[in-house]
Amino acid sequence: MAFTLPPLPFDKSALEPNISAKTFEFHHGKHHNAYVTKLNELIAGTEFEKLSLEEIIKKSSKDSKQAIFNNAAQHWNHSFFWECLKPNGGGKPSGDIAKKIESDLGGYEKFAKDFKEAAITQFGSGWAWLVTDASGKLSITKTANADLPLAHDLKALLTVDVWEHAYYLDYQNRRPDFVQTFLDKLVNWDFVAENYAGKTFKVAA
Ligand code: FE2
Fold this sequence. Notes:
The chain has a 3-stranded antiparallel beta sheet with strand order 2-1-3, sandwiched between helices. The chain folds into 2 domains: 21-83, Helix Hairpins; 95-197, minor pseudopilin epsh fold, CATH 3.55.40. 49% of the residues lie in helices and 10% in strands. The longest helix is centred in the N-terminal third of the chain and has 23 residues, at 21-43. By secondary structure, it is mainly alpha-helical. α1 runs antiparallel to α3, α2 crosses α3 (66-83) and α5 (108-121) packs antiparallel against α7. Bound molecules: fe (ii) ion (FE2). Fe (ii) ion binds next to α1.
């Protein structure tokens, strides 16, 4: 099957001034689009062609098909990341996810500090994540380049993209400022809560 670039779940200027329309024009319109186009080229006529994106990610990870893995994973990561953002988001969550952050991660302030630290200390390109393991326990992780929780049998609840293309136009080299703004003003806690409550995010073909 051929994959398509999903539309952003908000207008490209909806997150200004925190993330500009120009950043989305490049990040979604060029970078994310390029991963989708490349993935379709790489899987055409192969055993991967009939698989879902999640199946492609797991199989290419296991079989060391690096180019397919990188483009498939980046398509998944970006599709997921857009859902993690919303206008007037961020700050402390409420409800069950807030209680779980309290019990597993020491509360929101500690979570925010540790999540920011993971995002800042990811050397080079990558992602910071809030994940759950098979037992349901929350943890904070970071991955390099295209790598993602799905390849490590973890479930993603939240992510922030810390590739330079995610923030350079708006923040230049100030990754800590971008991550702090993400936490304070952009996190879509409704999406995180849905994932925590059992929804499994899947990317449509
Ligand atoms: Fe990105």
